Amino acid sequence: MKMPANSLLNQAPAVLNIGIDGFNDSISHNGGHVDHLGWRPPGNADPVLAWNLARLMDDPRITAANQEVTQRIINARPMWEDVALRADGVWSEMKGARLLLHAGPPVAWGDMCGPMHGAMVGAVLYEGWAQTAEQAEKMLQRGDIAFGQCHDFQAVGPMTGIISPSMPVIQVRDATHGNVAYTNINEGIGRCLRFGANGPDVLQRLKWFENVLAPVLKAAVRHNFDKTGGIDLKAIQSQALLMGDEVHSRNAASTSLFFMTLAVPLAAAQGKVPQDHIHQTLDFVAKTSQFFLNFSMVSCKAIMDAAHGVPFSSVVTAMARNGTETGLRISGLGQQWFTAKSDLPNGLYFPGFSQDDACPDIGDSAITETAGFGGCSFAASPALTLLAGGSVSDAVRYSQEMYEITVTKNPALSLPALDFAGAPCGIDVRKVLDTGIRPLVTTGIAHKKAGVGQIGAGVVRVPMACYVSAFEAMAQQFLKD
After folding, report:
1. Helical ranges in 89-151 per DSSP H
2. For 34-43, 251-260, 418-427, 436-445, which range has the lowest pLDDT when averaged over its residues?
3. pLDDT tens-place string over residues 205-231
4. Same domain, yes or no, for 15 and 101?
5. Contact status, residue 328 vs residue 465, Cβ threshold 8 Å
6. What is the domain count for the chain?
7. Which of 61, 143, 148, 195 lies in disulfide reach of 453, CB 3.0 to 4.6 Å?
8. Measuring CA to CA, how many Å separate 480 from each of 49, 329, 474, 476?
9. Does the pLDDT at position 15 exceed 80?
């Protein structure tokens, strides 16, 4: 009797590989097809952590708290209501003091990355506390300048995120919950303080912000405030998702919508501010496709601050990076930072640069992911995949992954590519550890040396160690009885 031929031996194999991806290359290089399932044991493969995770996954206290948190996120209505012409008029701690705010969790001068060093020097020069870069650096090394974290002052800043006493800041209020948030003004592209540049051209632009741009923006928003209570930033963000932005790394549509929002009140402001200043402002905004980024960030900061401080909640309310470490804050765990070494972003580099030139992940802009934009809404922005080095299917997959680690969907943020489903809402520490899926952040990539600027764009994952330490704090607090 003739035995039937085994077709497995006569054709290229099709393999489903689970967990470790070390087998994938050998299969594909030998003509096989491999699908990889990136699975790892729950609880980061730690038996104690996994047991505590099992005990807290269905905890009714956490479930109720997370429902409250996500409802606050959904109901939040961030309104741009003013521009404070000086930061020290907002924060009394800055009045007459030498205090600089920066992005991310706390970091000492000796541990700062190159761009942070350069931006700190630039801020000291901008304030007139030193006359040369060498003098400024010596002051910073000696500890003559105090540091604070933007998040501790209800503020956010992109990349290095530096805010100094003389800088104007954007003021946003969550009309639903009443809390206020702040940010600085986007400098555009090229040589910028946020990338560590500190030459005369950079300082001159900051002075122009102070003397021209900020007063014009203030006149525009105050005109709207008198009629409508300000400018609804969430409405702009939501519309931009329908127009190809994910409102973090891509803000072309949102900046255009913002420009249209400015035009009418500025036409009415003629006579209150110089006509030439209005023209300069509109020209700068029109030429700066990322201008809305800071408004998106401060909108999300107002949203997430309203969601912070709910006892027993496991929802992430801040993700921030300082170029050395990435840190998290959790709604139910107070103001504590849970930190780990920042990863290097992956993506597409501009000609002449590679990952060897990149600074580790930096900036407060990951606040947008916590509010459901950025990586959570990647599916809305197929154009961004060209910069991030992926494909449209990758963009859709990223958003689908984020559903696995979030509490619910936000009906106010529609993603067209996913049949207008609401964006993922409420990153849950427990789900990150249960699935092994780390939150995805869309990001610009800064050169590791001060002043070079942006050298690419891509994506980065939040370090799992941040979530491990946050969950361990949850277990210690929530299981102590």
Report:
1. 114-127, 133-142
2. 34-43
3. 999 999 999 999 999 999 877 778 899
4. no
5. no
6. 3
7. 195
8. 15, 20, 10, 6
9. no
